[in-house]
Write a structure and sequence with these properties.
single chain, about 240 residues, mainly alpha, 7 helices, about 45% helix, about 5% strand
Length: about 240
């Protein structure tokens, strides 16, 4: 298992584009029946991720005090946490977060250029010392309520619960009967997962950019524009 992050640092995001960037492409054709056993195939990843998330909790405590006293998230710790989020996204994309590929996820924190799912985050040069005290529990609370609907409370091996798990189940049924993944459903699932990972990056203290209340669907990040909706129309 490789844990060395070899991907180059993300370049600065365009103005109006959230610094956490999720992209993916749908692998076609997909197996009609493989999705039924992905809960078993992905089990080794879930075991590894369990330990990685425990490590993230420890890292986040260290990063909290580092930001509080220096205004910076130590780069090795930042790369580790973003790597865990990246790994988690690849597993979700393979399994019941999207079912977007039949290619088995790699065991690595680094970005894998030819894998169909990617997630990256621009490293911030400076983080607010004051925001670190409140953003992970108070400021992000409205998003937690939304994510409760997206992710639900049920946690079973074959079903994650919530809207994302239900829509992934619909996608699996569609694959079983038609051999095709409904494109609109795929785009919606990408948008929901993008929302989840933006909030995760903010709550993990990795960025000071507040996640927008906006569902950006599809496999590509939206073009540059206002983060929280269209600009108000200017009157002459």
């Amino acid at each position: 298992m490789s844990t060395h992050v070899t991907s180059p640092p993300a370049g600065p995001a365009s103005p109006g584009v959230y610094p956490a960037r999720l992209t993916a492409r749908l692998d076609e054709p997909l197996s009609r029946w493989l999705w039924l056993v992905k809960w078993l195939l992905a089990l080794p990843h879930h075991i590894v991720l369990l330990f990685l998330w425990v490590a993230v909790l420890v890292v986040s405590v260290v990063a909290f005090f580092a930001i509080l006293f220096t205004g910076r998230y130590p780069r090795p710790l930042f790369d580790f946490t973003t790597g865990v989020l990246r790994w988690n996204w690849r597993v979700a994309y393979y399994a019941y977060g999207t079912l977007g590929t039949d290619r088995y996820p790699p065991f690595t924190l680094a970005d894998v250029p030819d894998y169909p799912a990617h997630w990256d985050l621009e490293y911030p040069g400076h983080l607010s010392r004051g925001l670190v005290l409140v953003k992970w529990w108070l400021l992000v609370l409205p998003h937690y309520l939304v994510l409760g609907f997206f992710l639900g409370g049920a946690r079973m091996a074959w079903f994650n619960g919530g809207l994302i798990g239900l829509l992934a189940l619909f996608a699996g049924v569609a694959l079983a009967f038609t051999g095709l993944y409904p494109r609109g459903l795929y785009d919606l699932l990408l948008g929901l997962n993008r929302w989840v990972l933006r909030v995760a990056a903010y709550a993990a203290l990795l960025t000071d950019e507040y996640p927008p209340f906006r569902l950006d669907q599809g496999g590509e990040e939206p073009p540059a524009g206002p983060l929280n909706g269209p600009e108000p129309r200017k009157t002459p």
